[in-house]
Amino acid sequence: MSRLILDLLWNATVQTLEMVLASGLLAVAGGLPLAVLLVLTAPGGLYPLPWLSRTLGAVVDAVRAVPFIILLVLLIPFTRMVVGTALGTTAAIVPLSIAAIPYFARIAEVSLREVDAGLVDAVRAMGGTRWMVVRYVLLPESLPGLISGFTVTLVTLVGASAMAGAIGAGGLGDLAIRYGYQRFNTTVMLGVVAVLVVLVMLLQGAGNVLARYLRHTQPTPRG
Amino acid sequence: MKLLEVERLNRSFGGQVALHDISFNVGKGDRLGIIGRSGAGKSTLLRCLSGLDRPQSGRILLEGEDMAVLPEARLVLLRRRIGLVFQHFNLLTSRTVAANVALPLEIARVPKAQRHKRVAELLDLVGLADHAGKYPAMLSGGQKQRVGIARALAAQPALLLCDEATSALDPETTEAILALLADINRVLGLTIVFITHEMDVVRRLAQQVLVLEKGRIVARGTPADILDANQLDAILPPNLSQTPHDGSHAIVRLTVTAQAMLAPLLQMLEQQCQAKLTLLQTLPAREEEGLVDLVVQMDGLAVSTMNALQAHACAAEVIGYVPAYS
Ligand SMILES: Nc1ncnc2c1ncn2[C@@H]1O[C@H](COP(=O)(O)OP(=O)(O)OP(=O)(O)O)[C@@H](O)[C@H]1O
Ligand SMILES: [Mg+2]
C-alpha cells in the first residue's frame, strides 16, 4: 500500500472517529435524560405523568422510524441553520446525533427499567427524594448496562457515519465511495473495510471490558 | 404517647381488600411480631408503616405525625426516622459494604468525617469490620443481611421494621440474625416491628404478637398465648361446643408446675376430684415460669370437681365440651 493511501485512510479514520465520538457523546447527553424522563413519568413510575411519557415515547419512535439516509436529507436545512453548512464532518454530527439520541434513549430506558424495584424502595424508605433515587440507584445500578448500550450506539454510529459520507461528510464512508466505488480502487475499498472492522471490534471490546469491570454482581459463568 | 399508633387502617387494591381496620400500638423499646400466612397482608402493612404506600383510610402516627396524610415532602423526612430491613437485603450492587451503610447518612447530609466514624461503628456492631471494602455480591446471605441491618440503623431511626428478615436464610444464620436483632433492641433500646410467617421467629424475638389473616387481626397477645392458641386449635376435636349438653365431657386446660409432673399427677387428681381424666395433649413447657399446660378430657362436670381441680393445679379452665361418645 502506498504512502498516499495510508494517509488517506488515516485522515478518514480520524474524521470518522470525530463524528462517532462527538455524536455519541451528544447521544448520551440528550438520550440519557430522555430515558430517565421516560422511566420516571411512565405509569407506576416515581413521577407518573402518562401524557408526557406517551408524548415523549411517540416522538422518540417517530424519529427512529425514519431511515437514516432520509433523515440525513430531511435535516439539511436544520443542519445549515446550526453549523452554517450541510457539508463536511462537523455538519454530519447534527443528523448523526439527532438519530442517535432516541436510539440510545430507548436502549438506556431498558437498562434503567431493569433496576430492581427493591433497591428503589430501599432508598425511598431511607428518606431519599426522587432525585436521590435517580442519582444513587437508577444511574449507578444501571451503569454497566448503560455502558453496553453506549457501545452498541457507537458501533451503530460507525455504520451511520459511513452513510453520511455519501453526502460529503468525509470519513471512511466518503473515502470508500470516492475511491473504491467511483474509481474502482479495490485497495482503498479493502483498506476501508479492514479499518471499519478493526474499529468496531476495538469499540466493542473496550465496552465489554468496561461493563464487566463495573458489574459488581456475581460473575457470570463463562461458556 | 406511644411511638407508633395505628388506627383503623384500610388498604385495598382494586376491589380486593388487603388490610381491614387494622389497629395497634407500639411502645418505645417494644418488639412486636406480626405473623400471618402468605397473602395475609403482612407486606402491605409494612409498606404502609414505612411510608412507601398510603392506606385509603386510617391513621399511622409515628411520634405523633400521621404518615397516612403527610405531604410527600414531609413524609420523605419522616421516613428517615424508620429503618427498614428486607427479606432480599436490597443492597446496592454498585456500592461497597461501607458505602451501602453510609447511604442513609449521605441522604441525611451527614458530613463525611462523621459518616466514616458512624459506618465503622456500625460495621463493628454487626461484626463485618473486615468486609468494609467488599461488594455485596462477595458476601454470604447472612453477611448481606448484617449489612442490611447496619444500613437500617445508620441514621439512628426511632423504629426498625423488618420484612421477613430471616426468610431467605438457613436455620443457623437465622438464629444469629435474630440474636443480633434482640441485642440491638436490648442495647440500643430500639423499637422493632417485624413480620414473618414463621412461628419460631415470633417465639424468639417478639414480646407481643399480632396474627394477621386475610387482612384482619385475628389474634393478639404474647407469643406464649398465640403459640398455645395455635396448638390448641390443632388438637381440639372439631365438634367442640361452648355449652354443655347432657352427659357431655368437658375439655379442661390445666396448668401445673413442672415439679408436679414428676408424680403420677392425673391419677392423684382423679382420686381427689372423683372424675375420670384423659390426657389429650401436653403443651410445650413454659420454661421461664416452670409451668406446664395439660389439655385433659373430664367425664362429667360438677362444679365441685372443677373446684377440686383448681385447688390442686395452678389453674384450671374449661375450654369447651364434647359429646360423650367422642
Ligand atoms: N401492588 C399490589 N397490587 C395489587 N394487589 C396487591 C398488591 N400488593 C399486595 N396485593 C394483594 O394484597 C394481598 C396481601 O398481599 P401481601 O403482599 O401484603 O401479603 P403477605 O402477607 O406479605 O404475603 P407473603 O407472605 O406471600 O409475602 C394479596 O392478596 C395481594 O395479592
Ligand atoms: Mg410479603
What do these coordinates show?
Chain A is mainly α and 223 residues long. Chain A contains nine helices and no strands. Chain A is elongated. Chain B has two domains: 219 residues, P-loop containing nucleotide triphosphate hydrolases (Rossmann fold, 3-Layer(aba) Sandwich); 87 residues, Alpha-Beta Plaits, CATH 3.30.70.260. In chain B, a hairpin with an 8-residue loop joins strand 12 and strand 13. Chain B has a six-stranded mixed β-sheet, with helices on both faces. In chain B, strands 2-1-4-5 form a four-stranded antiparallel β-sheet, covered by helices on one side. In chain B, strands 12-13-11-14 form a four-stranded antiparallel β-sheet, covered by helices on one side. The complex binds adenosine-5'-triphosphate and magnesium ion. Chain B: This is Cell division ATP-binding protein FtsE. Chain B: Keywords: Amino-acid transport, ATP-binding, Cell membrane, Membrane, Nucleotide-binding, Translocase, Transport. Chain B: Pfam families: ABC_tran (PF00005). Chain B: One of its GO terms (biological process) is amino acid transport.
Key descriptive features of the protein:
heterodimer; A: 223 residues; mainly alpha; MetI-like fold; elongated; B: 326 residues; alpha/beta; Rossmann fold; Alpha-Beta Plaits; six-stranded mixed β-sheet; four-stranded antiparallel β-sheet; 10 helices; 14 strands; 29% strand; binds adenosine-5'-triphosphate; binds magnesium ion; cell membrane (chain B); Cell division ATP-binding protein FtsE (chain B); ATP hydrolysis activity (chain B); ATP-binding (chain B); translocase (chain B)
